[in-house]
Amino acid sequence: MTTENKKATTRYAKPALWGLKELLYTAIRLARARFASQHHRRAARKVIIIAGSNYRETVYEDPSNVAKQFRSEGGIIITIEYLQGKEKSIPIYKKLASPNYRLITYVDRKQLRAQELRQLLCKANCFCKRRWVPYTIDQWDAPEGGCYLPVKISSTQRLATRTCKRKNGGILAVDEDKEKDAFLTKCKHSLFLTLCISCLVGDFTKWAKGRQTTENGDCVYMRRNGDHETEWFSDECDNDHFHICQTKPCDSTKYCPFQLSNDEREI
């Protein structure tokens, strides 16, 4: 492993007799140690990119175990297979890669482009901060549906709105479909849903029978009934309820638009 600056310097020298298996094992182990050091930024994602053109089995250290441990710690491994000759895949790279983070240089007569790696890096860097719960995990384990923080202290609608705004520019959670309703239900027994009845998003509603009215107030909260199903009720905005804050995940999308001028560059 080398560091590239004005003068390339070797950081970790390996014996010439070592095979790729030992190099992969050692590289992943050293990367884990680096991420665990005081020099690593706490908020930064841990991502390893492994690129190779062949692999030969040896009797020494198996890199799949240390790779599995790294992934279990929240790390992401991206692999790039440079196939040679009639090779269709290199099995060890599939074993090392995080789910759906595996790239092959030539698949179905299509050459791998730099844009595909760039998008994986964007997905890897889409995450929720500590204590925030991710929603709508996609195939890359990215919280595209946002991040949610249940607040432990009940408060009025105005204070709840202010609290959420102070927490990463968030808003009160919006119950907008059946899937999200099930997600929010797991978080709190009773909670404010949104700023006001007129602010509800889309056509989805779960009003309790005979309660679809502003008679009791201009705010909305959700509560479980005797059958453990959630229902909506209106209430005065000055009454206290627990709430959940909703915000966008930390990501790199502003640096990674879907269409870039150099998306045809080969890697």
Automatic annotation (TrEMBL):
It comes from the Eukaryota. SUPFAM superfamilies: C-type lectin-like (SSF56436), vWA-like (SSF53300). This is C-type lectin domain-containing protein.
